Known about the structure:
The protein is of the alpha/beta class. The protein has helices at about 15-25, 40-55, 85-95, 95-115, 145-160, 195-200, 200-205, 235-245, 265-275, 285-295, 300-310, 320-335, and strands spanning about 5, 25-30, 60-65, 65, 70, 120, 165, 170, 190, 210-215, 220, 250-255, 280. The strands form three sheets. A nine-stranded parallel beta sheet has the order 7-6-3-2-1-13-12-10-8. A two-stranded antiparallel sheet has the order 4-5.
Amino acid sequence: xxxxxxxxxxxxxxxxxxxxxxxxxxxxxxxxxxxxxxxxxxxxxxxxxxxxxxxxxxxxxxxxxxxxxxxxxxxxxxxxxxxxxxxxxxxxxxxxxxxxxxxxxxxxxxxxxxxxxxxxxxxxxxxxxxxxxxxxxxxxxxxxxxxxxxxxxxxxxxxxxxxxxxxxxxxxxxxxxxxxxxxxxxxxxxxxxxxxxxxxxxxxxxxxxxxxxxxxxxxxxxxxxxxxxxxxxxxxxxxxxxxxxxxxxxxxxxxxxxxxxxxxxxxxxxxxxxxxxxxxxxxxxxxxxxxxxxxxxxxxxxxxxxxxxxxxxxxxxxxxxxxxxxxxxxxxxxxxx
Length: 337
């Protein structure tokens, strides 16, 4: 049985220590970053090597391929896709065209990923940005209203799934009010419960049927004044599972972000004890990976059921003409320019 963590790796191929680690510890999935990605054949080999180590041909391999400034696969090997803000601009000019653009971009991204063996993309971003906040979300957001963000987010998620790639809704229950970057510090949000319910939570509730979600390393003082959502049983159980109604597999955001305190074993245990299903560790630092692996159990109970349900959502890509899709992308982008 796979263990309740997703791991990174250091370079463009697995070294002997990593291969032995993955065989022994059997993480549920692997996440790739730009440091791991040079060219298509190399990525295919890396993905295949990981799956060979864990003995699961459908083991999740994740990446952040959003478009805009967050793309791990970039030119000249792969297209540069529009940011969330560009999609929002198209939507505001013509909602039908904007949603068609979103679905089309997601299909193209999924087509890129599927050909490499990558079967999970960490999008859509469902955060509702507020004025005078940190730019970490910024132009990654699909607009400024919950309704627009939910509609574009669903088009992106469904576009991925049509091409055999699972989406991850993030950063649940909402990163749009953070005034600091959670990669560097712990954001504290003091908005009231009603403010959060009437805005931040809404896109996540609209997409609560999705198979995978990622937490926010943010303190929401209206619900828990001491713990970030990742480490808060009240936020996970009462808000994410309860009010929002998300019953997919819940992963943490990256444990190596500086928003969290404590050593890696403590960070891992606190997240699982709060109700997260799996923890995510991204930076490929071997000693940290080992500490996470030692702290987490095998997937069991509801977490195992959610993991199985997510994998069951994978499907063969539907029929699709990539050249036509690229032409449609160019046409829709020119209309919104």
